[in-house]
TrEMBL record:
Domain Sigma-54 factor interaction: from-to ranges: 139-364
Keyword Transcription: yes
Response regulatory domain span: 3-117
Modified residues (4-aspartylphosphate): D52
Domain of life: Bacteria
Alphabetical keyword list: ATP-binding, Nucleotide-binding, Phosphoprotein, Transcription, Transcription regulation
Name of the protein in question: Sigma-54-dependent Fis family transcriptional regulator
Pfam families, A to Z: AAA_lid_14 (PF25601), HTH_8 (PF02954), Response_reg (PF00072), Sigma54_activat (PF00158)
GO molecular function annotations of the record: ATP binding; sequence-specific DNA binding
Tagged with keyword Methyltransferase: no
InterPro entries the record matches: AAA+_ATPase (IPR003593), AAA_lid_NorR (IPR058031), CheY-like_superfamily (IPR011006), HTH_Fis (IPR002197), P-loop_NTPase (IPR027417), Sig_transdc_resp-reg_receiver (IPR001789), Sigma_54_int (IPR002078), Sigma_54_int_dom_ATP-bd_1 (IPR025662)
Length: 486
C-alpha cells in the first residue's frame, strides 16, 4: 500500500487530505508539528510527504532535508502561500518534487498532481527530461551543475512563474528557455523570443506592445505586439538589461497587472503570457549601477537559473562536438584525440556559440579532404599558448605585444593561404563556404583590433572605444555578441 505523510499544523488541512486520499486507497498519516513529523519519519517508510512550509515549531525546509536524509526515495510536495513562492522554489532545489499553493482552489488538479507524482518513478522523469532536451537541442551531458539546473528547470516549468536565466553570452539561454516552454503546460502555444538590445527603444516598444494606426509616422495600420501574439504562450526577453528605463517601466506594469496598452492606444489589454527573461549581465550589479530598476528585478527574479559557462563543464565537450557534427550532417567526420584534447583545454570564453563557430570552420575546411579533423583544421587561438583573457576580466597589465602580434600575423597568413587554395582549385567552388570563411575572418579581425585597443588602454573600455572611433555600445557588442574570447 502507498503510504503518504501529511505535515501541517492546521487540523482541517490534515483531515481534508486524510479523507481525500484514504478514499483513493492510500494509507495516510498526519503530523501536526515538526517534532511529531521527525519522529514519524524516523519510524515509518513513506512514498510521498506533503509538507507545510511554515510550522510553529519547525521550518518546512528543515523537515524536507531530514526527510531526504532518512527516506531518499520519498517524493515531496511543499505546501505554501503565494507570499512564500521563492521559498518553495528553494525547496525544489533541496529535492522537493513540486509545490502547491494554499488555498487549494482546484481539487481535481490537486488530486491529479498527487497521482501523477506517485505513478511516475525517477526513471520516467529522467526519460522525459532527456526527450524534451533532445527535442529542443539542449545537451545535458554529465556535468553535475548542468544536470541539477535542467532538473530544476523541468520542475518549475509547469508552474506559472516568471523565470530569470543568467549566464555568459553564448551559453544557450534561449535553448534553456525553449526547454522550459516545452516542459510546461503551454507547449501547444507560441514561444516567441526578442533581443531587447537589438532594437531601438521606439521599435522595441512597438514590437512588445503593438501600435494603433497613426500612432507615429509610418504606422499605416494597426499592429499586434508580442504580448498579444504570445498570449497563453511564452515570451522570451533576451538581454533584458539592455532595455531602456522607459521600457522597463512598461514591463513592470505587465508583470504586476497583466495589462498593457498598444502605442497610441487608450484601452488596456490583458495578457496571459509567461515571461522568461535572460541576461548575460548580473542584474543585481546593474541595479547597483542604476542601470536596471530594482522593482523590475524582483518581479523577474521569481526563479533564477544560472547556466554554467562551457569552461566549467569541459567534460561535456566531446558530447557537444558529436551533437554539432550530427546537426550539420557530418557524422563521417571525427576529431582526432589531439584535436579533442586541445578543445577541452581551451577556455571557451565565447562558450557554446564559439564552439559552434570552431566546429563549423573545421567541417568546412576538412570536408572533401579527410575524415579525421586534426589540430591543423582548428583556429590558431586553440593551438597557440598565448594567454586567454575573459571578456569580463579587466586587463590590469598589457599582454606581451610581440607574442600576440606574431599570433595574429600567423592567423592572417593561414587565412590567405586557405583562400588562395580555394582560388586555385579547378573544381567547382563552394561559394557558401567562401562567405563563411569571410565571416570568420571578420570576427577574428574585430577581435584582434579590440584586443589591441584594450591592451593599449589597460582594459579601459571607454578609452578603447574612443581609440577605435566606435561607441561603447558597439564595443560591448563586439565583446559579447560575436563570441570574442577577450
Amino acid at each position: 500500500m502507498t503510504n503518504i505523510l501529511i505535515i501541517d499544523d492546521e487540523h482541517e488541512i490534515g483531515n481534508f487530505f486524510s479523507h481525500l486520499l484514504t478514499r483513493k486507497g492510500y494509507h495516510v498519516t498526519v503530523a501536526n508539528s515538526g517534532k511529531e513529523a521527525i519522529n514519524t519519519i524516523n519510524m515509518q517508510n513513506f512514498h510521498l510527504a506533503m509538507i507545510d512550509i511554515k510550522l510553529p515549531d519547525a521550518n518546512g525546509l528543515t523537515l524536507l532535508k531530514h526527510l531526504k536524509r532518512q527516506l531518499p526515495t520519498c517524493k515531496a510536495i511543499i505546501m505554501t502561500g503565494f507570499s512564500t513562492i521563492k521559498t518553495a522554489v528553494e525547496a525544489i532545489k533541496l529535492g522537493a518534487d513540486n509545490y502547491i499553493e494554499k488555498p487549494f482552489d482546484n481539487i481535481d488538479e490537486l488530486e491529479g498532481k498527487i497521482d501523477e507524482l506517485l505513478e511516475n518513478n525517477v526513471t520516467d522523469t529522467k526519460k522525459e527530461i532527456v526527450q524534451l532536451a533532445k527535442k529542443t537541442g539542449l545537451i545535458i551531458g554529465t556535468n553535475t551543475s548542468m544536470n541539477e539546473l535542467i532538473t530544476m528547470a523541468y520542475k518549475i516549468a509547469q508552474k506559472n512563474v516568471t523565470v530569470l536565466i543568467e549566464g555568459e553570452t553564448g551559453t544557450g539561454k534561449e535553448v534553456l528557455a525553449r526547454f522550459i516552454h516545452q516542459a510546461s503546460n503551454r507547449t501547444e502555444q507560441s514561444f516567441i523570443g526578442v533581443n531587447c538590445g537589438a532594437l531601438a527603444e521606439s521599435l522595441l516598444e512597438s514590437e512588445l506592445f503593438g501600435h494603433e494606426k497613426g500612432a507615429f509616422t509610418g504606422a499605416s495600420q494597426q499592429r499586434k505586439g508580442l504580448f498579444e501574439i504570445a498570449n497563453n504562450g511564452t515570451l522570451f526577453l533576451d538581454e533584458v538589461a539592455e532595455a531602456s528605463h522607459a521600457i522597463q517601466v512598461k514591463l513592470l506594469r505587465v508583470l504586476e497587472t497583466r495589462e498593457f496598452m498598444r502605442v497610441g492606444g487608450n484601452s488596456p489589454m490583458q495578457t496571459n503570457t509567461r515571461i522568461i527573461a535572460a541576461s548575460h549581465a548580473n542584474l543585481y550589479e546593474a541595479v547597483k549601477q542604476k542601470k536596471f530598476r530594482e522593482d523590475l528585478l524582483y518581479r523577474l527574479d521569481v526563479v533564477k537559473l544560472e547556466i554554467p559557462p562551457l569552461r566549467k563543464r569541459k567534460e561535456d565537450i566531446p558530447l557537444l562536438v558529436h551533437h554539432l557534427l550530427d546537426k550539420q550532417n557530418s557524422n563521417h567526420l571525427r576529431f582526432s584525440d589531439e584535436a579533442m584534447s586541445l578543445m577541452q583545454n581551451y577556455e571557451w570564453f565565447g562558450n557554446i556559440r564559439e564552439l559552434v563557430n570552431v566546429i563549423t570552420r573545421a567541417i568546412t575546411l576538412a570536408d572533401g579532404e579527410t575524415t579525421i579533423i586534426t589540430p591543423n583544421y582548428l583556429p590558431i587561438k586553440l593551438t597557440s599558448t598565448i594567454e586567454q583573457v575573459s571578456p569580463s576580466q579587466n586587463l590590469k597589465s598589457p599582454i606581451k605585444s610581440t607574442a600576440y602580434d606574431h599570433d595574429f600575423e600567423a592567423y592572417l597568413n593561414q587565412w590567405v593561404m586557405e583562400i588562395l587554395q580555394m582560388w586555385k582549385n579547378d573544381s567547382n567552388v563552394d561559394f557558401e563556404e567562401i562567405l563563411n570563411q569571410i565571416k570568420l575572418f571578420e570576427d577574428q579581425i574585430g577581435k584582434a583590433f579590440v584586443t589591441k585597443a584594450l591592451r593599449k588602454t589597460l582594459g579601459n573600455r571607454k578609452e578603447a572605444a574612443k581609440h577605435l572611433k566606435i561607441s561603447t555600445r558597439k564595443l560591448r557588442y563586439l565583446l559579447n555578441e560575436k563570441g570574442t574570447d577577450l
